[in-house]
Every structure is written in structure tokens, then in C-alpha cells.
Amino acid sequence: MIEPKLISYLFMAVAGALSLIATYLAVIEKDLVKAVIYSAIQSTAYTILFYLLMAPDIALVYIPVAVGLYPAVVFFLIKKTERFEESG
Amino acid sequence: MRFLKVRNMDINGFLFVFMLSTIMLNLVISLYGVFARPSLIKKIIALTILSDSGNVLAIAVGFRDWPSGWSPSTPPVLNVTSPKASDVVSFARVAVDPLPQALVLTAVVIGLAVMLFLVFLTLQIYRLYGTTDVRKVAKLKG
Asked: Main location per UniProt (chain A) (predicted)?
């Protein structure tokens, strides 16, 4: 019999691993639009973490800010400036 | 049965520590992004990831249900309309610490304001210098 607590910690570990992969891809990606999308995936993993760490109010604030507003503003900035980061 | 419970507890502890270490690795990777990537937009993305990782660590400090086994925890929401003293006592026994959550709620909003300021700073740099690459901006004269 699996305890419910074990499932909760398992989801925490999976969300942490997902956020690690998404952060790595967001930092090394040259196409800034893809980097913003990876950043939104990382924010979704953090929302799961906030919910499992017993902070549902933070999760409610964090979803529209980090998945909606941040990518929208950065997309606006990319549209006004440059899309690709030059390698150096 | 007792052995199984202790073993489960160890698995829980391993998973929790694994989650904390991934968040700390996120801090390291996003610091690399802030310092070493040339594009200003990439720096903004890495800075938001950095502040959010700090927020998750702050929430984890207030989380009372660490696998070493303190007490079962619930969100800090008192769900009785007219609480008696016993309700408050039992609430304080099971709820997580609400102070880091209040701080993080403030930090999310302030981080949004700082990010908007940096976005318009970057836009103005692009309008003046025609690039968002910090190496090119550093080479400009005058």
C-alpha cells in the first residue's frame, strides 16, 4: 500500500526535475522565443511545488503572473528588439 | 510493518532532499545565465528564474511537514467563521508557517515591477544603440 504522503513527495521530486531540465534549456537556448517557452514550463513546475508545499494562495497568484504576464511582456520585448542571441 | 514505515520515511526524505537540490541547482544555472550570457533579454529571463527559485526555497523553510516527521500540515487557512480558542490552538498545531508565504506574495509582485522596469530599460537601450548584446554595448564610444 502506497502512502498518500509518498505520492506527494514523489510529485515534488518530479516537478523539481522538470524545472531543472527546463531551466537548463532556457539558459542555453539561442532562440529567445523558445527560451521564454521553456521558462514558462519551469514556472508551471514551480506552481506544482507551491501547491504541494501547502501554499495554494501563492500558486493562485503565481500562475497568471509567471505563465501569463512574464511571457507576454518578454514576447513584446523580443518583437520590438532581436529574436536570436548571438553566440560568443 | 514498522520497518516498512521507516523505509518509506527514508524514501520521502530522499525525494524531498532531491527536490531541494534541484532548486539549488536552478539557482546556480540561473546565476550563470545572469552573469555569462551576452543577451540582455536572456539575462532578464535568467533573473526571473533566480528570484522564483529563491521564493520556492523560502516557502520550503515554512513547510512544516518535512520528512523527518513533525506534524501533518495544512494550508494556513482558518475555515471556521467564529473561531473559539480551541480552534485557534488546533489550527496553530497543524497549519504551515504563513510568514514566508506573505513575504513571497510580496516578492512576486515586486519582482513583476522590477522585471517591467528592466524590460523598458532594455527597450530604450535597443532604441539608442541598436543592439541588446552587452559586448557590443560595452564597445560603444560616447
From this structure: membrane
CA dist., res. B108 & res. B80, Å (int): 29
The verdict on a CB contact (< 8 Å) between A66 and B52 is yes
Q: Are the beta carbons of A86 and B38 separated by less than 8 Å?
A: yes
CB contact under 8 A, A49 and B19: yes
**Confidence (pTM):** 0.88
| Closest residue in A to B10 (Cα–Cα) | A6
Residue of A nearest to B110 (CA): A65
The domain ranges of chain B are 2-70+87-139
ipTM of the complex model: 0.92
* Chain B residues lying within 8 Å of A46, measured CB to CB: 52, 55-56
Q: Where does B2-70+87-139 sit in CATH, by number?
A: 1.10.287.3510
- For B80-92, the pLDDT digits (tens) are 888 889 888 888 8
